[in-house]
Amino acid sequence: MLNQIYETLARIGYHHPLHPPVTHIPIGLVIGAFLFSLTAWIFNRESLAQSAKHCIVLALLSVPPAVLFGLMDWQHFYAGALLLPIRIKMVLATTLTILLLVAWGASRKGKRNMSRLTAVYGLCLVTVMALGLFGGELVYGVRDGATAPIDTPLVRQGSDLFGQRCSVCHYADKSEAKIGPGFKGLFQRDQLPVSKKPVTENAIINQLKSPVEKMPPFPDLSPEQIQALIAYLKTL
Question: I need a surface site. Which of 43, 157, 163, 192 has the fewest CB within 10 A?
Fold first, then answer.
């Protein structure tokens, strides 16, 4: 069922995760709540305090779909692997939900302490910023050591793909393990580090489609993207 959803989206040209665009809704609402509350506190404007409260209510309502799409992406793109950024995002998402509930409860009181309420909104803002930071690591990659010579469009494309899809778990500039093995000098080795199969293009393609051990599969990668990734791996 889940794969069918992503396959249908791929057929109409959408190959990206679903969670990131949806998270802009609670993020934007939390930013709005903080700015409205800060302005209401400074200028003693009750109407702006109400606007901040409405933003918080809408942010709370937008959390469930954002979490749902996050779980879907996690299962589809990472096969449920508990990578460090994902674990941190789970903690931060729980923290944000609690803070939003606290902010909503505080905003409902007849006599408000705007300075304290603004501080709670500020904590919500810091939390969504942290969520964005670790979400960016998953979507765009932590580009550790992605410094191999890039002299062709194909290799450049492969480098971008590695940064987006692989660098969370693998080093490009060293052979030591990160979460998975490092890939420096991969095509100079006799065997792949985990499966122990000969280092060939077909072996890497099979590893991407039907990986061994804990590595998630990447069924959404097109043949062109796989060739670009292999071209980049050959430069390491």
Answer: 43
